[in-house]
Design a protein that fits this description.
This protein is of the alpha+beta class and 124 residues long. It has one domain (7-115). It has 6 helices and 4 strands, in the order H-H-E-H-H-E-H-E-E-H. A 4-stranded mixed sheet has the order 1-2-4-3. The radius of gyration is 14 Å and the shape is globular. 21% of the residues are buried. The mean pLDDT is 88.
Length: 124
């Protein structure tokens, strides 16, 4: 995997994902290379293993991975009962230029994210 300054990235996205920096500082984001087998295995065992140890998994894609492929992967995984999937790509600037410096797919706990977003709305 490429060497990325993840601290700088998570500091830069605080306005759209305010809890990510704390998760990063706490070591609760797992960074792994993407494989289909890996993402499916994590999804299948999310509540038994991963959610106890991590708030999110960041799958680093190959640099040449395009947006359509990442969109396909997230759409394929969207029926997960436990997880939600997002992607970020350095060439995709929608959303205020908060894109990751490399192509990534983010896997998070669906219920936890819903609760976090709800608490964020209450504070606004």
């Amino acid at each position: 995997m490429a060497q990325i300054d993840w601290l700088e990235y998570f500091e830069s996205i605080q306005q759209v994902c305010p809890w990510s920096l704390q998760s990063f500082h706490s070591g609760r984001i797992d960074f792994v290379p993407f494989t289909w087998e890996g993402i499916k295995a994590r999804d299948a065992t999310w509540h038994r293993h991963t959610s106890a140890d991590f708030d999110a998994v960041v799958y680093q894609m190959l640099p040449e991975t395009d947006i359509d492929e990442m969109d396909f992967i997230c759409a394929y995984m969207e029926h997960s009962p436990h997880c939600i999937y997002f992607w970020s790509h350095p060439d995709h600037t929608k959303g205020g230029h908060n894109q990751a410096p490399v192509p990534i797919i983010i896997q998070q706990d669906k219920e936890g994210l819903i609760k976090a977003r709800a608490s964020l709305k209450k504070t606004k």
